[in-house]
């Protein structure tokens, strides 16, 4: 399978958009089994089982999530996304977080996903310690 610019971009847009539907299966469907997920500077999460667990924890903590793309640049197998993530916590608090994400795509699946953001700002707004 060829990871074209268009296919790589669609995979990432579909993943980011899937959070509003809150289906763990749909959210995780674009990831390779050996994918690595990083909330920089937190320790990397390796493998789909561990990624599923952290995404489930996020779904449990947030009643709503909207990942709003501000800018996106794509090459075959590589997508960079500047976005604002809007979360509503289960207790009603709102989190608004500027994020830049880097996605590597191989054979139609996300193999690396790294989010860069202000960790202290996220923890202060959400009450969650990553």
Automatic annotation (TrEMBL):
One of its GO terms (molecular function) is limonene-1,2-epoxide hydrolase activity. Keywords: Hydrolase. Its EC number is 3.3.2.8. Coiled coil: none annotated. Pfam families: LEH. Residues 10-122 form the Limonene-1,2-epoxide hydrolase domain. This is Limonene-1,2-epoxide hydrolase. It comes from Mycobacterium basiliense.
